[in-house]
Design a protein that fits this description.
By secondary structure, the chain is α+β, with helices and mostly antiparallel strands. The chain starts with a strand and ends with a helix.
């Protein structure tokens, strides 16, 4: 019997402690006054009686009741039921009523106030309703002045009312106030009583929110409720605990938290608390608390909190069941004739149904948990542990984060302690848990069965709370309505303490007498039902059946090993190693080894021992923590069984060879294994002798995989489980005598102690290393970590492996101490839990150091003898072939080349020999990293595998973890991964003979050679000598290689140049890197003349990587800064050897690097680009040489690189432009002074191609450059002068463009009528072509639709004079003033202030030409969008500025990284949804290639068709500009498609015009952090795409492009070094000869020749091309096709370059021809080398180079002729001479053309022109183009027409008259089946209403579209993939501006705030932002579908604009990042949030 209430307390307002209107409470009465012996009184009770604070009130309030929960020191909960009312208090006002208080918020005391008073009951029971009734009776007696003594009521309540325990009878009582009350205890006290609180909680929050709270509570997260009702807080907390049953919440639990204790919310421990809603503002700062608002039903989960949720199948089942209970009508809501739906249950029963669902949820979640209980003690009390890992593994939930946290929580530990014993009192959860699997199978997700089972459980729960069905009529006195509003209410009377105590004592005596007479039936203990096992037996049987073949192979191999049939074992050994990846095979291996160990076959021969140890290592390496190291547990006893005899008295056990695995350092593993063995011994202790089997079952029968055998094997030894035996022992324990009990306890304690000793010895064996001097590898415990070193299958390389590999270096100073500490920690843990006595623990601790010392002494002899074993015979290290001048830096380090993501070399599904892994050695030379070895596979070991790449191509080097690899007999845990930009990957696992020091030395040396201090340390400059001045100059250049240093120097310099301050002379200290004023006494030197003094500042290039003017010093007008040619070979060696270079040791020599004393134009005439200028007729150098009639000249303005250091010395400019104008004004208008230079001229249209950098903007660099100009008085005039000179330059270009002088009124984008054909015919059909009537039904629309020939240009246009002329996109206005485009620049500028606007319908204020009124321009300038907007186009007549997108370098770098990982991944692709082509698509590499080709194609059309000049003005003018300009010339000029011409093109556009090869390729340490940028590689890829489509138009083949792509970053040749021609001149490489006069460049000083090292790539190509047609394209026929090429640029037509994916393992790289030759020659020295090649051999695509192994017919015939001439003793002729002697076949008559071919040509040209139009109009119109939905109508097609969606034919020879769908607005054509799939938006173009244009619009229907598959491409039979017409893809989706306005946005990188114009589009579902409201180009957008949360920020973010409101911040979280915004005010922020949420 238990008291109903322990204490009664009266708490009142403490007037003595009143402060500023808020006071505190004090206890007025408490009864009893002395504490009970069993229940102490709680201090601080007054805080919980008034959680909101003790405040006086000026108004009467109704009495309130709520229950608080108090927790004592023993974690027992006590319930404080509190009833609060107010009493009248007379107060003296502090101030007159008419005077306002000064304190804001302070309470003004009136003359009549109301003070709170609380009466409270404190009880250990949770009968809340009874507490409410009792307190209500006391309040009623007081307020109604009833004739009842309060002392009697209180005394009876505390002393007379006693409640029986759970299961007892109903109690009826009265407290003496005329009341009748009853109270019914529940049947089972372990099951919580919830009343209707659970149903109310779901009603408040909803299903999902409650499930989230449920998961948060189970995973130990902090939970906080807040509501305006204290009772609701208590009810919600009670409900949450109720649904957690059978778990018990073990953390802080405070349902009602007083305001005074709010700091408790900052506790680090989990909790469930509740606070009043008035404190809502204070809880917003909590960052790790899940907050539930009970009033609004909102659940807030912090952003950074990763809340684990239930497993999906359990969550879905629970959600379905809750929906059936809470909304039973939902499943029939959509039925047309819904059946009668049962109404929801009443609130009490609904509450129990919800709880029943959660009990079923726990039963399913913990299903099979009893099979994972491990019992380690039975007597005197059972000690049970739970095998968490085994449970997760058996359930298949090893990776489930939710279950991991639940099983590791304190609540589950309590659950195991209480429900683990097998014999105890059971409840309904035990029954549900035991039958849940069968119940779920029977239900089968049928709603009727689910509801029935749920209601059955709910009924039991309801009966548990209400066991007495008989109702009892209670009588509870209550006060009258409105009693608390009476005017005269007496104060609560003082209570007589003595009287109360007397009543209490009397009641206690009577209650004790009743308790003696009353007996309550106690529930009995019983056997706990075992329930289903955790694992699925059926699935395990299927796994065994599926692995039957593997198990048989394993059994055969193991038997062969033990029978000493080593050769037979080695045959199947690789297959066994591969099969060990299966868990079933690993378990079978442990059983097989255990069988042989028990047959006394543990002593093995040396080879047997090695094979067994390797099997163990492989199995342990594949073993994982998710399997709870089952293999390690099984192999642990076997490691001490198998051994070999080293010598007399010295035996080596297997454990000395398997110690490196991290599982042995896991404390969790040792504990789980120990408990498992203890359970077996405890079980054997109580198992009857007749049940112990003398013979163990034949486990080999398991290999037959028969289910009957498996069942018989499993049940043979395990008839009774340990829990069943323990249950029986617990049942009979009370009947045992004291002696028997003591004996059982002693036996169990001895069992645990003996096992502890045994495991201590095992741990010594496994932890003490064989070589104690090397220390311990694994010194930390892998708690919860995987013991496997398997690498994650990362597609993008091995980025996920950058972390630790699972190993740490131990404390090598004291390995014995580390082992002792580790074992002692284990012993303390297991002995404490196992109940081992203190004496035994002490003796065990004393024993451990001695055992460790003895074992170390034993291992010394084993280690010594093991080193004397004959080493395993390993393959001979094969040395690689070296190039002339190449030297070995590191000799071969033996290792293994591991396979990577490329499957070609691993056999497998692709077939072929398994070439990888290969065993050999890795070499480091001065040029390459080379691996050379032989495959480990026996069937392929006769071949030689070579993989190499240049050291300068290395992009990333790191250590990676590796898993088990077949064919490798060593245990390898980690490897070194080397990735190169030549698309090569090496994963080297070093042999065990290579120690860690050698590996680290190799890595450091590789990085040192990869990033030398200067380029002169690289292989290309091998043997080159350089001076100290060269070092200083190069260091000086590297100093400004970072933006931070450069900006700081520039700002400091700018600050010193303010008005009134003179530039200080540079001190001597600052001349550390200053060039000497006097030339050094050197025979040859390169000198730069002094620039003009006034240009020292203004002409300074604004490059981050150029020299700064501070570092230049000119002592006198006649002196020049001298750059000598230094000697650097000795210094290079010293650096690479790790030594310091002394400047005094460097000798000044000039043996190789030669330069002229001065730079002159005559000496530059032999440069390839100068000769190309003359070939193009662009003038001659110097102003004196030019003729008066030449429009262009080769200017010497940059002869000494004073204007632009990154430009060539000679540039082509118009003749009318003076050098002085370029030097002073024009260069300063562009970045880095890269002014417009002419590079090519069209031979027919005379159009010009120009290149330059972007125009100067007002960015950071622009402001730094203009700082000096702004601070001078002549700043305005200087700017005006520059503008005039720039306009004059443009005027000169326009004047020299014929189209600009003769076609003033044509359209902007006519391109000879690109878009639509006119109705007029300008001639007759082409000669020799078939008549129109032969093609179609008499229609001439075919010829009217043709616009030209794809791939045509020049004279090719003359053959189609009969074709129609195309109309223009915009028609010329019929009336208007004449054009004034040729107005003189000076006259126009003189009247500039007159306010005149340019004519032609254009507003000068717009600054951009609108397409509606634009005219065809003579000059098109393609530039960046940000610059084009700021250009005043009215100042540049007949020029058009086209904004366009370009590939920024950072985007190219990111794309290239993804491309390398896609083409050369570090691991095979395992995800079926992620294919190779998907990865390539994600790189966006082909999109960037497409961008280059499209822009180059636009330039081709403008120059070739329209005759307009084109200027490319992008970025710094050296990256994307070079790509576009060079590709444009390839398409336009056939000369550049020859080998010599392509060399000239590269020399001109890439080398002369200053592409930063050194910087982009990271040649030196100064550029290490910038990252490799493959700008030049993209250009070569674009050329490769063109070669693919036009194979007849190029003299060179694909191998030629690959050759250049490889060697431009190989650093073998000196062509692609330095960043400009100026640097090449300074360093003496500009005029160097290809060879020295002696011809022995590689000759060393000692006279020993190392061969000839060619320094120029072009010389190397010429030498190869002279000998063999390796680079020649035999399909080259320049006369067949015309000169201009127009390739397709659609993604479908672009191909992945095989340079990225092909490999040649036979020779390594095929681009070093000397190496290839040596690798293919027979190896005479190595008799054990590979077999000699024969006439017939197998060619493998991965191993061999198919193009060289299987020659084409041309090369084969040429080689055969050479062989025949040699056999005839004739001198063989050169192949080129033979090829040119061949008679070319007769040219086919061009008159034989067919209609189909003409259609194909027309279609290709049309697509190309459409792309050009898109580029021109996209930048001009931006996003202003109007769009609308398609309006499809049925249309009959009579001409060949394509479906614009699927690209299939709508009309053809078969489908004549086919009806399809056509958009009446935009002309979109499609099949009727494709109508629903096409883009939903129509790209309707605003067109003129003139009749002529309407005719053109109508004739657009006649445009011929031909299938791409039938296109006879020039590629010689190659099939062209399907392409897509981008003219329809460019149609923009119409937008709906739901909301727009300005917002401040915080940047992602620098966290800066910028104001942007935001547009919320509900149609596109985007939130876009622009620079300003007027901007039409979107800066970016946020996809609304990716938004996860949107809310106001709690605090103001740093760096925000001043005067920003704190509550105007709001955060938008997406799946990618968190966006921070700032609105003008809080209202605007709320408006944005509401608008965005409406769109979600």
């Amino acid at each position: 019997m238990t008291r109903l209430a322990d204490y009664f307390v009266v708490v009142g307002y403490d007037h003595d402690k009143e402060r500023s209107g808020s006071g505190s409470g004090k206890i007025i009465h408490r009864f009893p006054e002395k504490d009970w012996d069993d229940v102490p009184f709680h201090q601080g009770l007054e805080l919980f009686c008034q959680p909101g604070g003790w405040d006086l009130s000026s108004q009467r309030t109704q009495p309130s009741f709520f229950v608080s929960v108090l927790t004592d020191i023993e974690a027992d909960r006590h319930y404080c039921a509190c009833l609060t009312f107010h009493e009248t208090v007379s107060m003296t006002p502090k101030k007159p009523d008419d005077v306002e208080t000064e304190e804001e918020g302070g309470l003004v005391h009136h003359t009549l106030m109301f003070a709170p008073k609380s009466i409270a009951l404190i009880s250990r029971l949770d009968y809340f309703e009874t507490f409410r009734n009792c307190l209500g009776i006391i309040y009623t007696v007081y307020i109604e002045s009833m004739n009842v003594q309060l002392e009697s009521i209180i005394g009876n309540l505390l002393g007379s009312v006693h409640i029986p325990p759970p299961g007892g009878p109903q109690v009826r009582f009265s407290v003496g106030a005329g009341d009748r009350q009853s109270l019914q205890p529940p049947l089972n006290g372990a099951i919580p009583v919830s009343r209707n609180t659970v149903a109310m909680l779901f009603q408040q929050l909803g299903i999902h929110n409650v499930l989230c709270l449920f998961c948060a509570a189970l995973t130990d997260n902090k939970i906080l409720f807040h509501s305006s009702s204290y009772s609701r807080l208590t009810d919600a907390s009670t409900a949450l605990l109720a649904i957690l049953f059978p778990l018990k919440y073990s953390y802080v639990y405070i349902p009602v938290l007083p305001n005074a204790l709010m700091e408790v919310l900052s506790t680090p421990t989990p909790f469930i608390m509740g606070v009043h809603s008035s404190n809502k503002s204070e809880i917003q700062e909590l960052l790790d608390v899940v907050v539930a608002d009970l009033d609004s039903g909102y659940l807030s989960i912090p952003e950074h909190l990763n809340l684990p949720m239930l497993p999906d199948h359990i969550y879905n089942r629970a959600h379905q069941e809750l929906t059936l209970v809470l909304s039973p009508d939902l499943q029939n809501a959509d039925c047309a004739f819904p059946p009668p739906t049962p109404s929801p249950s009443l609130q009490p029963m609904l509450d129990k149904e919800i709880r029943a669902i959660f009990m079923r949820l726990f039963a399913e979640l913990f299903m099979g948990y009893r099979s994972c209980l491990t019992i380690i003690r039975i007597h005197p009390e059972p000690v049970i542990t739970f095998h968490k890992g085994l449970f997760l593994f058996e359930r298949g939930l090893s990776g489930d984060d939710f279950l991991q946290k639940v099983l590791g929580g304190m609540s589950f530990q309590t659950f195991v302690q209480e429900r683990g014993p097998p014999f105890r009192i059971c409840d309904m959860f035990d029954e549900i848990s035991a039958n849940i699997q069968e119940t779920l199978l029977q239900e089968g997700r049928k709603a009727e069965r689910i509801i029935k089972n749920v209601q059955d459980i709910a009924r039991h729960l309801f009966i548990n709370e209400n066991p007495n069905p008989q109702p009892y009529s209670q009588k509870i006195p209550k006060p009258c309505d409105g009693a608390f509003t009476r005017i005269h209410i007496p104060t609560f009377p003082r209570i007589d303490c003595v009287r109360v105590q007397e009543v209490i004592d009397d009641g206690v005596k009577k209650a004790s007498m009743k308790a003696q007479l009353q007996t309550i039936r106690q529930p009995k203990s019983q056997f706990v039902p075992y329930g289903p096992p955790a694992g699925n037996i059926t699935a395990q049987r299927n796994i065994i059946n599926n692995n039957a073949r593997r198990l048989e192979v394993l059994r055969t191999c193991v038997n062969s090993i033990f029978e000493n049939k080593i050769l037979d074992a080695r045959k199947t050994f690789p297959a066994v190693l591969r099969s060990l990846k299966s868990r079933v095979v690993r378990n079978a291996l442990t059983r097989e080894l255990s069988t042989h160990a028990h047959q006394n076959r543990a002593m093995l021969e040396s080879q047997q021992f090695d094979l067994i140890v390797r099997l163990m290592n492989c199995a342990l390496q594949e073993d994982a923590c998710s399997e709870e190291h089952a293999v390690a547990t099984a192999l642990l006893p076997l490691t001490a069984s198998f051994c070999r005899k080293l010598c007399t008295g010295v035996i080596q056990f297997a454990y000395t060879c398997v110690q490196d695995h991290p599982v042995w350092a896991s404390m969790q593993f040792w504990q789980a294994t120990f408990y498992s063995d203890v359970e077996k011994n405890i079980r054997a202790l109580y198992l009857p002798p007749d049940e112990l089997k003398a013979d163990k079952p034949d486990l080999n029968e398991a290999f037959t995989a028969s289910p009957d055998v498996v069942r018989r094997t499993q049940g043979l030894l395990y008839d009774k489980s340990a829990l069943e035996i323990a249950a029986e022992q617990i049942r009979i324990w009370p009947a045992q005598s004291e002696e028997e009990r003591n004996e059982m306890i002693s036996n169990e304690e001895s069992t645990v102690f003996s096992q502890a000793i045994h495991y201590a010895n095992r741990m010594v064996y496994m932890r003490v290393p064989l070589d104690i001097s090397k220390g311990i590898k694994n010194v930390f415990s892998h708690e919860g970590e995987s013991g496997s070193s398997n690498i994650s299958q990362s597609i993008g390389g091995s980025d996920s492996l950058d972390g630790e590999s699972g190993f740490e270096e131990g404390d090598s100073s004291d390995p014995a101490g580390s082992v002792i500490r580790f074992i002692s920690k284990f012993v303390d843990k297991v002995c404490s839990e196992g109940g081992v006595t203190a004496e035994h623990q002490k003796s065990l601790h004393q024993m451990i150091p001695g055992v460790v010392a003895m074992h170390i002494e034993t291992l010394e002899a084993v280690n010594k003898e093991s080193k004397r074993l004959p080493p395993i015979k390993k393959p001979k290290i094969l040395k690689p072939a070296l190039l002339p001048g190449e030297e070995l830096v590191l000799a071969g380090l033996r290792g293994y080349l591991l396979p990577d993501g490329r499957e070609e070399g691993t056999g497998g599904n692709l077939g072929g020999p398994q070439l990888l892994p290969a065993e050999g050695a890795v070499f480091l030379t001065t040029y390459r990293v080379v691996f050379k070895g032989t495959p480990c596979d026996i069937q392929a070991c006769e071949q030689v595998v070579i993989r190499s790449f240049p050291i300068t191509a290395l992009t990333k080097e790191k250590k990676v973890s590796i898993s088990n690899t077949p064919h490798i007999e060593q245990y390898l845990s980690e490897a070194v991964q080397l990735r190169a930009c030549t698309f090569q990957l090496m994963r080297i696992a070093f042999d065990e003979e290579v120690n860690q020091e050698k590996i680290e030395h190799f890595r450091k040396t590789v990085n040192r050679y990869r990033y030398p201090p200067s380029v002169f340390s690289m292989f290309a400059f091998n043997g080159v000598t350089t001076t100290n001045t060269m070092l200083q100059t190069h260091k000086q250049k590297d100093k400004t290689a970072t933006l931070r240093k450069f900006a700081s120097r520039t700002f400091l310099r700018g600050s010193s140049r303010k008005p009134g301050l003179k530039n200080k002379q540079m001190s001597r200290k600052g001349q550390k890197y200053v060039l000497p004023g006097e030339p050094l006494a050197v025979p040859r030197r390169a000198t730069l003349p002094k620039p003009p003094l006034q240009d020292l500042t203004d002409s300074r290039p604004n490059s981050l990587y150029e020299e700064d003017d501070i570092s230049l010093d000119f002592s006198s007008p006649g002196s020049t800064p001298s750059l000598t040619t230094p000697s650097f070979e000795a210094d290079r060696r010293r650096f690479l050897d790790g030594r310091t270079v002394d400047e005094s040791e460097i000798e000044i020599q000039t043996s190789t690097l030669k330069a002229s004393d001065t730079l002159s134009a005559d000496k530059l005439m032999d440069r390839p680009y100068v000769q190309d200028y003359q070939r193009l007729g662009l003038g001659s150098p110097g102003s004196t040489r030019q003729k008066s009639t030449e429009p262009f000249r080769i200017s010497e303005v940059n002869l000494h690189y004073n204007v632009c250091r990154s430009y060539p010395a000679l540039v082509v400019v118009p003749s009318t432009v003076a050098d002085e104008s370029i030097r002073k004004s024009l260069g300063k208008c562009h970045r880095q002074s890269r002014f417009p230079a002419i590079t090519w001229r069209h031979p027919r249209t005379k159009a010009l191609l120009l290149r330059c950098s972007g125009f100067h903007g007002k960015g950071v660099m622009g402001m730094m450059k203009s700082q000096v100009v702004q601070n001078t008085s002549t700043g305005t005039s200087t700017e005006t002068t520059r503008s005039i000179e720039q306009e004059k330059y443009f005027q000169s270009i326009v004047a020299n463009t014929p189209v600009g002088s003769h076609h003033n009124t044509d359209s902007l984008v006519s391109l000879n009528s690109v878009l639509t054909p006119t109705s007029e015919a300008t001639g007759s059909p082409p000669q020799g072509s078939e008549s129109p009537r032969k093609v179609g039904g008499g229609s001439s629309a075919i010829y009217r639709a043709m616009t030209g020939i794809r791939g045509s240009g020049g004279k090719g246009m003359n053959s189609f004079r009969g074709l129609t002329k195309w109309g223009s996109l915009r028609t010329t206005p019929s009336s208007g003033p004449p054009s004034t485009l040729n107005t003189d620049v000076g006259a126009r500028l003189a009247h500039k202030t007159g306010g005149q606007q340019p004519e032609g319908g254009q507003d000068a204020k717009d600054g951009a030409v609108m397409p509606t009124s634009a005219h065809k321009a003579a000059l098109y300038v393609f530039g960046e969008k940000s610059q084009m907007k700021a250009i005043k186009t009215e100042n540049f007549p007949k020029c058009d500025f086209i904004p366009c997108d370009f590939n920024e370098v950072r985007h190219v770098k990111a794309s290239f990284k993804k491309l390398m990982r896609a083409c050369v991944s570090s691991a095979p692709l395992t995800d079926p949804e992620v294919s190779f082509h998907k990865l390539v698509e994600d790189t966006e590499w082909l999109l960037q290639i497409q961008n280059i080709m499209q822009l180059a194609g636009a330039a081709v059309d403008l120059m070739d068709i329209q005759g307009s000049s084109v200027m490319i003005s992008m970025e710094d003018g050296s990256d994307f500009t070079s790509q576009v300009v060079a590709l444009t010339q390839v398409l336009l000029d056939p000369y550049y498609r020859t080998i010599d011409g392509f060399r000239v093109l590269v020399e001109k556009e890439w080398l002369a015009f200053g592409h930063k090869f050194t910087h982009r390729c990271n040649h030196t340490a100064a550029h290490q952090g910038s990252g490799f940028a493959p700008i030049f590689l993209q250009f070569l890829d674009a050329v490769h795409q063109v070669v693919n489509q036009f194979p007849l138009s190029f003299e060179f083949n694909q191998y030629f492009l690959k050759f250049i792509a490889y060697h431009y970053c190989s650093a073998r040749f000196r062509n692609f070094f330095f960043d400009s021609e100026c640097e090449r001149f300074e360093y003496g490489t500009l005029f160097e000869d290809s060879r020295t006069k002696s011809g022995k460049i590689g000759e060393r000083g000692d006279g020993t020749s190392k061969g000839i090292q060619i320094k120029s790539l072009w010389d190397y190509i010429d030498s190869i091309h002279l000998k063999t047609p390796l680079f020649y394209n035999f399909l080259y026929a320049p006369s067949i096709r015309d000169c201009v090429l127009r390739p397709y640029s659609d993604i479908a037509n672009l191909r992945i370059w095989d340079y990225y994916i092909n490999e040649d393992l036979r020779t390594g790289s095929t681009y070093d021809r000397e190496v290839v030759t040596k690798a293919t020659e027979p190896n005479e020295e190595n008799e054990e080398g590979p077999l000699l090649p024969t006439d017939r051999r197998i060619i493998n695509g991965c191993y061999d180079n198919i193009q060289e192994a299987q020659l084409d017919m041309f090369r084969w015939l040429l080689e055969e002729m050479s062989h025949l001439e040699t056999d005839l003793c004739h001198f063989p002729m050169k192949w080129k001479f033979v090829w040119e002697k061949l008679e070319s076949p007769m040219e086919l008559q061009s008159t034989r053309t067919t209609a189909a071919s003409e259609m194909v040509k027309q279609h290709g040209t049309s697509l190309h022109k459409k792309t050009t139009i898109e580029i021109l109009t996209k930048g001009k119109e931006g996003s202003k183009s109007q769009t609308q939905p398609h309006h499809f109508e049925t249309h009959s097609y009579v001409t060949p027409t394509y479906c614009d969606y699927c690209q299939h034919l709508l009309w053809g020879l078969v489908k004549q008259g086919y009806k399809g769908m056509k958009c009446s607005e935009c002309g979109y054509n499609c099949h009727d089946k494709c109508q629903n799939l096409v883009p939903k938006q129509c790209g309707k173009v605003k067109i003129s209403r003139e009749s002529s244009f309407r005719q053109s619009q109508t004739s657009m229907e006649d445009v011929i579209r031909v299938t791409p598959q039938s296109t006879p491409m020039i590629s010689g039979g190659q099939t062209t993939p399907t392409y897509y017409d981008h003219s329809w893809q460019s149609a923009q989706v119409s937008e709906t501006r739901t909301h727009e306005g300005y917002l401040w946005k915080r940047g992602a990188l620098l966290k800066g705030w910028k104001q942007r114009w935001f547009v919320l589009d509900s149609t596109k579902h985007q939130l876009r932002y622009y620079e300003s409201k007027e901007d039409t180009h979107c800066k970016g957008f946020i996809d609304l579908s990716e938004i996860e949360s949107l809310q106001l920020s709690a605090v103001a973010l740093p760096g925000a604009p001043k005067k920003a409101e704190e509550k105007a911040f709001f955060d938008l979280k997406t799946i990618r990042r968190v966006y921070n915004f700032l609105a003008d005010s809080k209202d605007h922020a709320d408006e944005w949030i509401n608008k965005i949420q409406e769109c979600l």
